[in-house]
From TrEMBL:
The chain crosses the membrane at residues 717-741. It comes from Maribacter ulvicola. Pfam families: GerE (PF00196). It comes from the Bacteria. This is Regulatory protein, luxR family.
Length: 918
């Protein structure tokens, strides 16, 4: 996989304006609103980690590169001076001085030293200066010098007002209001010789400068003490210092001195070349009154009467900014005859002797500046002009001169996009340019690219993309070919480029190329990593892309392994979106057009800085879980589970830069992320041991040595050892209980199954018994019916025999035999005996029939009951008659009477009633 090197530079940019000055470095403003303290800042110091400390009217300000923190003195007085020495921050205030140290929680704690002063009383003293000399710390008020050494304080009273002190040649030199300089020797003041030149001058500051001492006066300029002799600096700088009241002096390097003034900001003076540059409020400072200065690496910090500023010295990017609005938004710039020309929405400007000049008659919107054949073309809102000898000459009346593109295979023929179509430009033999409108096209063309000498591609922002064929003279459109959507999702707002003689298109963030041989548009693989970007400058080896997303980065690449990104919030705010332009002056110098000026990049210097990155390891400034702040010296932070829902870890890497961070968390769970701030928030981590590695990310996307933090989220109470032991016993008891319960449940289930089986067995037996009884009843019913019918037939036969014998009585000669025969027949038809047998069998089948019938109808006679029984057996009248030994008529009469007794209506069937009766 192709490896890319991503370079990220973070620049703090504040605009500046001064028509008579060079380009200025970036300035970062820190307002009192941002650092949340008083506006006045009297002193600045920085520790070995690059963390800033400021003497402020409200107290001591601490800036670790990420956060500002204010610490107040116990008496809440103004801090006038500050100095960092060997891990301690010494401060001076009203009748108070001492030092601050960081405690185990990352906070500063104050220790006063004034109790060490013996036999001396303060006289309304404020301490304005603190200097280290070897192992001693010197505090200066306007009347006294205090020397702190070996935990003792010695006092040197001066017979004059002490305006400033300095360390020079490993001694302390003192300046007094009597306009003289003194050495401190053996706790006494010894005057220097040859100081007549300083007589009558108020010395406000002194700093060593090589082997010399710079002496700054309030209104008389600056002097240089060398080998015991005092000389005045050149008037080039001194005239400025006299006018604007010098206040602070700082040596930046062996040739450069910074002067802070009361009325006009800061001056940087090169003593070798006798040149200076001024930065003031008009150029980006928050205030013109400089109260303190501090150099740290390539930065100049200013403590101002209103705010704190950081100036990026020797920065590879410098800026020219129009605060007045006169220049406006710059759309193009070009170097012409060794002068820089700017085209803006207000006209054409150029620099001459570092002064911005306006080209008369150029007022209006300027879209394009091109140098062609030694002539400067200006595409203007009102037409196209050629600028020569400071004068504009119009060569085209067609309004809105956009891009001028040379026609391939011609010497001096150009096509220009305008508000209303295309224009043709040709240089005649006499050296004069002539222009004409290309007929046959009437829509605005801002971008165009040639496919060949007679075919040009043009994009309309709303109507789409067109391929236009022209005649050989390029004066007339012969054919319009509209490019339909196909490989391109959308033909609106397309951007066109001619890269290495190939038509390249950008649509909706994607890149495409056109193949004229196959007449096919396909994806452009070389730009696949630059989706959603505009190409704003390119040549054969370098490409500049502008990121269209919310981050709006500028990316420089060779399409290989070398790539870097310019990423800055202030720069993003100032770029002219959709018209952003990068102009190459040469292989190293590039210009950026801005909404209020322009920027200049020295690419060689920038790339050299990338090779010398000093990347600090982050430091932990706080470790907070819930509301508890931990000590920073802990080997392993222990976090209770109930406060571990949110863990906040703050880190910083010093005030030199606004760093990006990368962290890796390993443990019960793992996670990693890049951060543009120093606050790492970990949420809802499960308990367990964790290792957190935090890196500072360089401008080349390289990682610093990690800061390793180990912490352990303790188990919650319900996972403590005692809880786990309790869970173990509860588990054992639960297992036993479950086993007992299952055993009981199984026994119960077995019992239920047994009862169910018994019940089912009983039901089966009962069913069998029932079926058996039903069969028995059915058998008995059949048998009873059969027996009854047999008796009935027998009786019927006997009756017939009796009737037959009675009819043939005369045939019997022996009367006695006739009677005997009649008696035998009568005895054979024994109704009572037959009834008893019938009754026994009937009661077996219908056990309670007679009892229930008598209960309901108590007036029934035995004979009625017999008839009821025969009727229940569903016998007919004819069948009942022989059973009862009466005639059919007798049975009918009996039935009639029975119906009366039972109170049954004639419409109801008597037999059915008795059959249903239980």
């Amino acid at each position: 996989m192709k490896t890319k090197l991503f370079f990220l530079i973070t620049l703090y940019l504040i605009p500046f304006w001064n028509i008579g000055q060079n380009l200025s470095p970036p300035i970062q403003n820190y307002s009192s609103y941002e650092y949340n303290a008083a506006s006045k800042n009297w002193g600045l110091t920085i520790d070995e980690n690059g963390e800033l400390y400021v003497a402020n009217n409200n107290g001591l300000l601490h800036f670790n590169g990420e956060n500002w923190t204010l610490y107040k003195l116990p008496n809440k007085t103004i801090i006038r001076s500050v100095a960092y020495v060997n891990g301690k921050i010494f401060t001076g205030s009203y009748e108070e001085f001492g030092f601050w140290q960081m405690n185990d929680y990352g906070s500063l704690v104050y220790t006063s030293l004034t109790h060490l002063i013996k036999d001396h009383e303060f006289t309304n003293e404020e301490f304005w200066q603190i200097i280290q000399l070897n192992d001693a710390i010197i505090f200066r008020s306007f009347s006294t010098v205090y020397i702190y050494k070996n935990n003792e304080i010695s006092v040197l009273d001066a017979p004059f007002v002490v305006t400033t002190i300095a360390k020079y040649k490993n001694q302390i030199i003192v300046a007094g209001e009597q306009r003289r300089l003194y050495w401190i020797k053996d706790n006494t003041l010894t005057p220097l010789e040859s100081q007549e030149i300083l007589e009558g001058k108020t010395i406000v500051d002194m700093v060593p400068f090589g082997d010399s001492l710079i002496i700054g006066t309030k209104l008389s300029g600056c002097f240089l003490l060398t080998d015991g002799k005092v000389a005045l600096l050149d008037d080039t700088i001194n005239n400025e210092l006299k006018e604007h009241q010098l206040n602070k002096v700082l040596a930046l390097d062996s040739n450069t001195i910074a002067f802070g003034t009361i009325k006009n900001g800061v001056y940087t003076y090169n003593i070798k070349w006798n040149t200076f540059q001024n930065l003031n409020k008009a150029l980006g400072l928050q205030n013109n009154t400089v109260l303190a200065m501090l150099q740290y690496k390539e930065q100049l910090w200013l403590g101002l009467d209103n705010g704190i500023d950081k100036i990026q010295l020797n920065n590879p990017i410098t800026y020219y900014t129009d605060h007045t609005g006169v220049l406006g938004t710059v759309y193009d710039l070009v170097d012409y005859n060794n002068e820089l020309y700017l085209g803006s929405n207000t006209g054409i400007y150029y620099f001459r002797d570092n002064k911005l000049q306006f080209v008369p008659g150029s007022q209006g919107h300027v879209w394009d500046l091109e140098v062609i054949d030694g002539d400067l073309f200006c595409g203007h809102n009102t037409g196209t002009f050629i600028l020569k000898d400071g004068t504009l000459n119009k060569v085209s009346d067609i309004s809105g001169g956009y891009q001028l593109v040379k026609v391939p295979e011609t010497e001096s023929s150009y096509i220009q996009g305008t508000y209303t179509g295309l224009a043709n430009f040709k240089k005649g033999k006499n050296g004069k340019w002539i222009s004409s409108r290309v007929t046959g096209i009437d829509f605005p063309v801002k971008q165009l690219c040639f496919e060949n000498a007679n075919t040009v591609w043009a994009a309309h922002p709303y109507k789409g993309l067109f391929k236009i064929k022209m005649n050989d003279e390029h004066t007339k459109v012969l054919e319009f070919i509209e490019i339909k959507t196909g490989a391109i999702p959308n033909t609106y707002n397309i951007k066109l480029y001619n890269i290495k003689n190939q038509i390249i298109l950008s649509s909706e963030g994607n890149w495409y190329k056109y193949d004229p041989i196959s007449d096919v548009i396909s994806e452009f693989e070389e730009f696949k990593d630059y989706k959603d970007m505009n190409l704003v400058n390119y040549n054969a080896t370098r490409y500049w892309f502008f990121d269209n997303d919310n981050q709006k980065k500028i990316i420089h690449t060779d399409l290989g392994e070398n790539q870097f990104t310019l990423d800055d919030a202030q720069l993003r705010k100032r770029l002219a979106i959709e018209t952003e332009t990068i102009v190459s002056y040469n292989d190293s110098i590039y210009y950026f057009t801005l909404t209020d000026g322009f920027g200049k990049l020295n690419l060689n210097r920038f790339e050299n800085e990338l090779k010398n990155v000093d990347l600090p390891t982050p430091r932990v400034s706080s470790f907070i879980d819930g509301n508890e702040t931990h000590q920073l010296k802990e080997q392993e932070y222990k976090v209770p589970f109930n406060t571990s829902k949110t863990i906040r870890i703050e880190v910083a890497a010093g005030s030199f830069n606004k760093y990006t961070y990368y962290y890796e968390l390993n443990g019960t769970i793992a996670q990693s992320s890049y951060l543009d701030h120093g606050a790492i928030i970990l949420q809802n981590l499960p308990f367990g041991e964790y290792t957190l590695k935090i890196h500072t990310v360089s401008i080349g996307n390289e990682l610093s040595e990690p800061k390793i933090i180990k912490f352990k989220i303790l188990r919650p109470w319900y996972f403590s050892n005692w809880s786990l032991l309790g869970y173990f016993f509860i588990g054992i008891a639960s297992i036993l209980l479950v086993r007992w319960y299952n055993k009981q449940k199984l026994a119960k289930k077995h019992h239920i199954l047994k009862v169910q089986m018994q019940r089912e067995q009983e039901e089966r037996l009962a069913q069998i018994e029932k079926e058996k009884l039903e069969k028995e009843i059915k058998r008995k019913q059949t048998e009873l019916a059969r027996t009854t019918m047999s008796v009935a037939k027998k009786n019927e036969l006997i009756i017939e025999l009796k009737d037959l014998i009675a009819l043939n009585q005369e045939a019997f000669t022996n009367k006695q035999r006739f009677k005997s025969l009649s008696k035998k027949l009568d005895s054979s038809m024994n109704e009572d005996q037959d009834w008893k047998h019938f009754e026994v069998s009937f009661k077996e089948l219908h056990e309670d029939f007679f009892e229930n019938l008598l209960k309901k109808y108590p007036k029934l006679t035995p004979k009625d009951l017999r008839l009821c029984a025969y009727l229940k057996m569903n016998h007919t009248t004819k069948e009942i008659a022989p059973l009862m030994g009466i005639s059919v008529r007798g049975v009918e009469i009996h039935r009639y009477r029975l119906r009366k007794k039972l109170n049954i209506d004639s419409s109801q069937n008597l037999s059915n009633y008795l059959i249903k009766f239980k």
